Amino acid sequence: MLAAQVIGVGSYAPDRRVDNAELSRTIETSDAWIRERTGIGERRIAAPGEVASDLATAAAKRALEVAGLKPNDIDMIVVATVTGDRPLPATAAIVQRKLGVTNRCGAFDLAAACAGFVYGLGLGNALIGQGQCRHVLVIGVEVLSRFVDWQDRTTCVLFGDGAGAVVLGPGAEEQPPGISGVHLHCQGSMSHLLTIPAGGSERPASEASLAEREHYVRMEGQDVFRVAVKELASACLSAIDAQQLKAAEVDWVVAHQANERILEAVAQRSGIPFERFFRNIARYGNTSSASIPLALDEAYQHGSLEPGSKLVLCALGAGIAWGSCVVRWHLPKPTPRSAAGP
Ligand code: UT7
Fold first, then answer.
1. Integer distance in angstroms from the first to the last C-alpha of the chain?
2. Of the candidates 140, 5, 134, the residue with the CA atom closest to the CA atom of residue 76
3. Is the pTM of this model over 0.90?
4. Disulfide check for 257: which of 25, 91, 242, 291 has CB 3.0–4.6 Å away?
5. What is the SS3 string spanning 281-333?
6. Percent of the residues in the chain that have a pLDDT greater than 70, as a whole number
């Protein structure tokens, strides 16, 4: 099976920045607590009327531009999200329309929460490897600001809005595989740890569910923290072991940005130095499925990635679902024309 490679990357974050000081004016929290416990300094919040497909489309346009492709060159659109525009249709269908893709390519949403982008990469890699698609657009997008309880200080300080996208294309046979060592896991027995209880078929919207604020994110933070450290460290090692790589050979770990302390602990357990963990949580908070492609684009735009760079991607979130893979970067550093970060 021919492995896929990343041939384009882009991201978009809403303009509005909400810093910790602004939050501390409406809930009982402080900049010191949020920074110490999470590493977050500010997050972006979508403007009224700005929806997931808008963010996703903006990120996808940038990724297509870097790839040098037209919208109709795309054969499949995968949108990883748990905060799409509507329950129906898939946000990917709306993105297809907004991008101006008229070739009737497949388009669907993938719900694996914070692990969604890594799941999407694994899927895109398989579709290209089997010759079913040539170019797959994988987007991670969230507008979590509409799903967090702004009265609950234990969750609302953590999340933010954003989008990131990659275009995958077939890799060259003479090069090391662009995407490899894909590991995808879920432990459904822990699904209660991070959830939005109402709004689905189990508990449709009702006055009672609204009154009990069950339409918002609820999380057992400490339990998720513990499982995240354990499973992300082991997922990083599984991905690099599968490629006969050593921890010292990894150039960058681009991990889901949920908590800087999680990343420190994963670094310690995995033996990959903490300095190699790309971090932008301070400026975006936890953007769930958008966090890895946002970080990837930022690393690319900053010139931190170059052909031959060896990356480990890993993420864990609601489900509890997690995943990891190795990405060998083949894109040249950005030219001024394609430099358009979030
Ligand atoms: O993206 C999906 C995956 N998600 C994650 O990986 C998140 C994993 N969990 C975490 O990152 C951390 O558990 C949190 C950041 C959510 C919480 O940090 P913590 O160190 O586990 O804090 P805690 O829940 O143990 O709370 C410690 C104290 C409590 O007060 P008491 O009971 O000790 O008096 C909380 O009420 O901090 C209090 N607290 C706050 N104080 C100020 C909780 N939230 C806040 C807040 N501001 N925003």
1. 34
2. 134
3. yes
4. 291
5. HHHHCECHHHHHHHHHHHHHHCCCCCCCCEEEEEEEEHHHEEEEEEEECCCCC
6. 98
Question: What is the helix (H) or strand (E) element at residue 61, kind and residue range?
Answer: helix 52-67
Q: What are phi and psi of 155, to 5 degrees?
A: -120, -40
Q: Give residue 221 CA to ligand 1 midpoint distance, Å.
A: 6
The minimum-distance atom of ligand 1 relative to the CA of 153 is 48
| Mutate which of 34, 37, 217 for ligand 1 pocket (most atoms within 8 A of beta carbon) | 37
d(C-alpha 288, C-alpha 82), whole Å: 9
Residues 184-230 pLDDT 10s: 999 999 999 999 999 999 999 999 999 999 999 999 999 999 999 99
Q: Which residues line ligand 1 (CB under 6 A)?
A: 29, 33-34, 37-38, 114, 153-154, 157, 221-222, 224-225, 228, 258-259, 262, 286, 288, 317
The answer to whether 292 and 164 have CB atoms below 8 angstroms apart is yes
CB contact set of 45 (below 8 Å; sequence gap of 6+): 14, 16, 17, 18, 145, 160, 161
* DSSP reduced 3-state for 29: coil
Task: Name residues of the chain where pLDDT drops below 50.
Answer: none
| Cα 127 from Cα 134, distance rounded (Å) | 8
Residue 327: strand pairing partners: 179, 311
